[in-house]
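We keep the chain:
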Amino acid sequence: MNRTLSLLLLTICFGCCRVSDRIEPRVSYQIQDRHFSRLQSAFANLSDEERATDWGREMLIGLAFAQDLDLYRAVSTYKRAEILIPKEEKMRKLEIQYDVLLCYYLANRYDETIESFEKSDLATADKSFPAYHDLLLILYECYRETDCPEKEERMCEMIDSTYPSTSEELKVSRALRHGELDSICAINEDLQHPSYLDPMLTCYDQESKSVGRAQMLNAILPGAGYLYIGQKKSAATAFLLNGLFIAAAYQFFYRGHVAAGIITTGFEAGWYFGGIYGAGEEARYYNERLYECSAGRVLNERSLFPVLMLQHAF
């Protein structure tokens, strides 16, 4: 009996936990071949003399693979070019190393991108390097994706000091991708209205669901919280199950089967308080999907993903 009561109390404590309003969106970008086909290379074309060399021919083959976004073949070919290129061709070697890094990045191989950078001579590059802007953006995104906050912040500082306009775009991008609604509203206040953020914020404000309200409604009437967020089947299931357990518990107590009544009440408490918590979770999930749809549209249309901010391609 004591064990049953303990389980009941634990269930109640767990079920009464309030779900956070904080959303954790996962917004993705839509990159297409034509996006990179519009971008020019940051580097000068190979001269006729360079094309005639072994390393120059490998570079041309690697370039052809890269332009077709056949990234893995491009990496292998560029690496052969790096092996063959003479030491005195320092700028061309940096170009090859950058192209390898760019291939890894576009393939979403962030660890390999960082490893490639650390093994290369690109750490010595400065603003005179033709692809310096894009190099900083790539490293920023890779450190962000691999959870290296200190290095990510370092890249932010470097971008801010050399490319202020890109830094401002990154601030908007970071706020949108992380779902930082307070930061987005603060940014929107500084924009000229109507701004490109107005429709997104209006849509979210009008259509998002209150996590607290969903939990409160489900506490008042099991299933009402799910109905509030549009989940009719879950609402009916919650209502029927809670009703059946309540009826069963009542019958057990009424007929003098106290132990069976307590056990049934324990199961009902699990369904009841679990339903309250679940309604809050579903409301937050609903808000995340709503946000991802509208924020993703803004991020893609305004090219606010770092990969879409790149100024050069192959």
